[in-house]
Amino acid sequence: MRIAIHQPDYIPYLGYFYKISKADLFVYLDDAQFSNDNMHHRNVIKTSQGVKRLTIPLDYHFKDAINRVRTKDELGWKEKHLALITANYSKAKYYKEVFPLLQELLLTKYENLADMNMTINRFILSGFGFRTAIVKASELNITSKKEERVLDICSLLKANEYYSGLGAKAYQKTEDFKNRGVELIYSDYKAFPYPQNGDAFDSNLSVLDYLFHCGFDWNRVLEGVKKKGEEI
User: Is residue 179 part of a domain?
Assistant: First the structure.
């Protein structure tokens, strides 16, 4: 069985969903420590003035887990994000199909940041038609850290393959996985061009950019990644 693991991020980029699509089982690290440097509470969209960051205001303490972080909904950030999205994507081909569902999910009240992100991501996964099983790390009772935790999750879930993002190459050791009977496989995702507002193509935006312009067409993603890989 192949598994993939990642923190629950806010409307992440296409490569995040590509990673999930390649796994039999995906584990949300919902109890990982929140990092202000990562994409747990922000992402980017394309506007007429260029790339614009959407950031969620939060209430948290240092070393809090993502599933302990509260979003400051009283500041009206949800309405602001939705207004900005509408201002820049209302004329996109699939806006009327995607936006009402996104709006309903985003305006729902959530206990914490992790729950909100996972709920929105599940909607996107369902739209793409994925059948990948999903579990939360907080339900696994594993207390180890960093690479050791990934290895322990693989062992607990009886995985023989671990599908990883390229960023983890800096600290993961193939030999450590091999010693646990797990083959370490890195994602082959590459950003590819698709119909988009403006003249120049911007890659690695929030998945929303793709959804508004291309809908839930996953075959276009697979074909785009394959073609981009063949060019390199």
Answer: yes
Is there a domain that residue 232 lies in?
no
Asked whether residue 231 is assigned to any structural domain, the reply reads no
User: What is the pTM assigned to this prediction?
Assistant: 0.96
Contact 203, 191 (CB under 8 A): yes
| Contact indicator for 221, 227 with CB cutoff of 8 Å | no
| 105: pLDDT strictly greater than 70 | yes
pLDDT digits (tens, 9 = 90+) for 111-162: 999 999 999 999 999 999 999 999 999 999 999 988 899 999 999 999 999 9
The pLDDT mean for the chain works out to 95
Give me the number of domains the chain comprises: 1
Distance CA 11, CA 39 (A): 9
Q: Which are the contacts of 58, defined by CB distance < 8 A and separation ≥ 6?
A: 34, 41, 69, 70, 71, 72, 113
Angle between helices 113-128 and 14-21 (to 10 degrees): 70
